[in-house]
Design a protein that fits this description.
The protein has 357 residues and is α/β, with parallel strands linked by helices. 34% of the residues lie in helices and 16% in strands.
């Protein structure tokens, strides 16, 4: 009997690319994908995936488990606009915490062999006593609703493991980028945002002074380790940082991408500095555990990865850019979001798709 893998967020970056990898490398495997297309795109989904357009917040996900009996579940679906999350609190908790709780319920009911959940670096907040790099054993201290929701999901999954015997692996990826990323959402995925801005003759925007440090993770380097997260006994009930081991400042990343896009001249492609956001200054993790347990290798440097992504981005259709037309809370919202409501498009009342930051 073939293994059956269920992937939520199947039309987003991680979900669609992991499905591609499984189909190419694990032929005796059936992939079922769920996405409501609120942020992912159906043409990202491999034609060999059994695709189900479904909302995880209020859709009938029980039918999917009954009809397809998955052995392993990858729960990637999320709305990962961390900086925006204080202004869309209810939406954030519905689409990150509530949807995860419903997936956990079904995994328990149907005796899924393992749930692999993608969390986020945001659970670390400013870091335990300011320590860098972040280690998996550091006490989480998230500073925004997105990080809080993801940490709550982690705790719920671990509680289900103790009380109901659910097997799990929690992955904390960071700044994943590459082919099939959504570059049309202005609230997240900064590398994609810059590509969109360049293609539309807009200046590249940076929040604050641009000296924030980030580690960048090329999607292809993460795929086989993600597969191993569900298959290896050594990864059972482990929390693992996953992603690139080199970090740069936001300024350095912007300069590199301008060069790749052919606009290294600051006069041709200006950078505009916006007011600072409520965010962690320097966010980068240790990667030792991923190397030991998942055999992760940092194969792709950021220049090569961005070059591949830029070549792909130029071939994409022109899509309308997503912009919220109404926030739950406008008090304290940054001027660059409050004042820009052109091309307004509102997400469904509840919905999740395959995003990661």
């Amino acid at each position: 009997m073939p293994k059956k893998i269920l992937i939520t967020g199947a039309a987003g970056l991680l979900g669609s690319r992991l499905a591609d990898w499984i189909i190419d490398n694990e032929p005796d495997t059936e992939v079922i994908g769920i996405d409501d297309l609120s942020g992912g795109y159906e043409n990202n989904v491999n034609p060999k995936v059994t695709f189900i357009n479904l909302n995880l917040v209020d859709g009938d996900i029980g039918d999917v488990f009954v009809n397809h009996t998955p052995d392993y579940v990858y729960h990637f679906a999320a709305y990962a606009a961390e900086g925006l999350s204080p202004f869309i609190r209810a939406y954030n908790y519905d689409n990150n915490l509530k949807s995860t709780a419903r997936i956990v319920n079904e995994c328990i009911k149907h005796s899924v062999k393992r749930l692999v959940f993608t969390s986020t670096m945001a659970v670390y907040g400013h870091g335990w006593e300011g320590k860098r790099p972040f280690e998996e054993s550091d006490p989480p201290a998230p500073i925004d609703p997105y990080g809080i929701a993801k940490y709550a999901c982690e705790m719920d999954i671990q509680a289900a493991g103790v009380q109901h015997g659910l097997d799990w692996t929690i992955i904390r990826p960071h700044n994943v980028y590459g082919i099939k990323q959504n570059i049309w959402d202005k609230y997240r995925n900064v590398l994609g945002i810059w590509m969109y801005q360049y293609m539309n003759d807009e200046p590249l925007t940076i929040f604050g002074d641009g000296e924030q440090k980030r580690a960048w993770s090329y999607i292809d380097d993460c795929l086989e380790p993600l597969w191993k997260a569900s298959q290896l006994k050594e990864t059972s009930k482990e929390i693992i940082n996953l992603g690139g081991s080199e970090f740069t400042t936001i300024n350095e990343a912007a300069q590199l991408l301008r060069e790749i896009m052919g606009g290294g001249d600051i006069e041709r492609v200006p950078v505009v500095y916006k007011e600072p956001r409520h965010e962690v200054k320097d966010a980068y993790p240790t990667h030792t555990k991923s190397e030991v347990l998942l055999q992760y290798e940092d194969k792709t440097d950021i220049r090569d990865g961005l070059t591949k992504m830029w070549e792909w981005a130029q071939q994409q259709p022109k899509r309308e850019r997503f912009v919220w037309d109404q926030y739950e809370l406008e008090k304290g919202i940054y001027s660059f979001w409050k004042n820009d409501k052109s091309n307004n498009t509102k997400l469904p009342k509840s919905g999740v798709s395959g995003y990661l930051s």
